[in-house]
Amino acid sequence: MPMNTPVEQFIAEKRLEDPSFGGLLAKGFALLRCFIDDPHPLGNGELSQRLQLPRATVSRICRTLFELGYLDWDPKLDKYFVGAQVLALGYPYLAGLQVRHLARPMMQALANQVEGAVSMGVAHRLDVTYLESCTHMEGTSARPAVGAAREPARPADVGGHRLLRAGAGRHLEAAAQALRDRGLAGRAGRRRGARRRAAR
Q: Apex CA 92: angle with CA 151 and CA 142, to 5°?
């Protein structure tokens, strides 16, 4: 779900395509995604503002996720943070991804050769989730952790088109025409515009 789109709007649009789309489940996952952009404890008020949902609705979702182990709660701060069960959700995916183990020796060799970091990731819409990272023996601060999700979106005007930056983004530039055909470049521009308006 695009993070700049109000949850209720996103659900309404999805239900036009598929009336069986589960709105309550979507709200729960949208709430968890808030911690991707800001992995710090967040309170009901902050989450309500980000999701543009009523505070009472956010409170019920947080309490449910807390009881299920997907959120933890700090009573001193009266704020929530991601629980261990979120990590457990991703383990079956990583465990079944044999390509990580096959590619790691070649990734490590390349990282040593270029004295930098080499990463493998999977794209979903405008985000890239990293599945494996290797770095040369001296290390590098640019190495993304496994499971990290990043939006490599920043204006990079190549041939009059906005493309994606850095690491995985530069590889996507090589497929610029395919990105334009799928509408990702325009979607990235809309997301950046919405974030700039929200920051004013």
A: 35
Dump pLDDT digits (tens) for 99-134.
Answer: 888 888 898 888 888 888 888 888 776 677 788 888
Is position 107 within any domain?
yes
Structure tokens belonging to residue 117:
């970091």
Task: Record the tokens describing residue 37, joined without a space.
Answer: 């952009």
In a domain, 88, yes or no: no
Counting the structural domains of the chain, the total is 3
**Domain limits at 18?**
7-83
In-domain check, residue 90: no
DSSP 8-state class, residue 70: S
Do 79 and 102 belong to one domain? no
Task: Kindly report the backbone phi and psi dihedral angles of residue 193, in degrees, each rounded to the nearest multiple of 5, phi listed first.
Answer: -60, -40
The helices-and-strands tally (H runs, E runs) of the chain is 9, 7
**Residues 161, 181 share a domain:** yes
Q: Furthest-apart CA pair in the chain: how many Å?
A: 54
Following DSSP, what letter does each residue of 18-30 receive, concatenated?
A: -TT--HHHHHHHH
Contacts of 141 (CB under 8 A, 6+ apart): none
